[in-house]
Design a protein that fits this description.
about 15% strand; about 350 residues; about 60% helix
Length: about 350
């Protein structure tokens, strides 16, 4: 049996451009600290600063590239042993590189930074070890945090999936059973729509969807509900073309909002109403809104207050969590009841 912890390298990936830049920045920061440190016996000139910067950046780049290439074999070791091996490897690279630099300076009759061979090489190795240890620890914690956020997003999607499955299944199956003799063609279409919906629900925590697929899924859901509610449910789409139909979205981004509109709005009103779904692009943002008539949350007899807070609130928190993980803080989910209507709007950056 496979151990997933063995398959995923635990050593942070230093092949990323941002992390390589962070390593170079840490190396240059050490040089700046040395320049600013009060030391009457040492005078820094521009040439000396440039030489020290060149050495620090060169060693940092060499260590980052080496750890990048050796990420897989080091990750096969136990974490403590592998971490020590990575730090020792960085120290070895720094020691060897500093030794080469010192030898080159010595052939010219000078000593780099005015210090002897052993102090120069061991000092460089010690500083490199500290930098690599701190950087790897920071990146490791950052990776674990990102993995936890992703796991939470998946858990939210799984919870959303579990809520959708029983709510919709029994009503749909009863509806299809009633249609089989009366209208088998419509029953067949309902079965196909239902299978697509539950295929998406089963994969809610895995993979991606697109804006086009999410709209199609919402359309299939609404077609089934229209069979159940009849004239009480009417749907209006407002698609402000052009739209980024191939925009990658988490699965079940739109359908839960449409389901909330039907479950907590239309189905609670004897006269029913219209579910309005609007999509438009403004500047560098996509706005996706769902609006429906709903009972007043201030009316205790309607039960709308508990319904909106428990049902719709859970779905919206799940969607907001997953969108924030995918698009960052610019993704927003806002909602509220006003003038007899409940509206929820998703705003997504198109340049994320």
């Amino acid at each position: 049996m496979r151990d997933p912890r063995r398959e995923a390298p635990w050593l942070p990936d230093l092949c990323r451009l941002r992390r390589l830049a962070a390593m170079l920045g840490l190396a240059e920061l050490v040089v700046v600290v040395l320049v600013l440190a009060p030391d009457d016996a040492r005078t820094w000139t521009l040439a000396r600063f440039l030489s020290a910067s060149g050495l620090a950046l060169w060693l940092s780049l060499a260590m980052a590239v080496l750890l990048c290439k050796l990420r897989a074999p080091i990750s096969r070791l136990p974490q403590r042993v592998g971490a020590l091996a990575a730090v020792a490897l960085a120290a070895t690279v720094a020691f060897a590189g500093a030794g080469v630099i010192h030898a080159l300076y010595s052939t010219l009759g000078a000593e780099p930074l005015g210090v002897g061979f052993w102090r120069f090489t061991t000092g460089s190795a010690a500083v490199a070890s500290l930098i690599v240890a701190l950087a790897l620890r920071h990146f490791y914690v950052s990776d674990r945090w990102a993995a936890q956020v992703e796991a939470n997003a998946r858990a939210e999607a799984d919870a959303l999936q579990a809520r959708i499955r029983p709510h919709f299944l029994f009503n749909s199956m009863n509806l299809i059973a009633g249609l089989l003799r009366r209208d088998p063609v419509v029953a067949e279409r309902a079965v196909l729509d239902l299978s697509d919906l539950f295929r998406a629900a089963l994969g809610a925590g895995e993979g991606d969807s697109t804006l086009a697929a999410e709209c199609e899924l919402a359309t299939q859901y609404l077609s089934i509900e229209q069979l159940r509610l009849g004239d009480r449910l009417r749907v209006e789409w407002d698609k402000g073309e052009p739209l980024p139909w191939d925009l990658v979205l988490p699965r079940l981004t739109l359908q839960p909002l449409v389901e909330n509109a039907v479950l907590h709005g239309i189905s609670r009103l004897p006269e029913g109403g219209v579910v309005s779904i609007a999509l438009r692009v403004e500047g560098q943002a996509l706005h996706l809104g769902v609006r429906n008539p709903a009972p007043s949350p201030q009316d205790p007899s309607s039960g709308a207050l508990a319904s909106l807070h428990v049902g719709a609130g859970h779905a919206q928190r799940s969607i907001a969590h997953r969108l924030a993980w995918r698009f960052g803080p610019q993704a927003r989910v806002t909602s509220g009841w006003s003038g007899g209507y409940y509206a929820c709007e998703i705003t997504l950056p198109l340049n994320a």
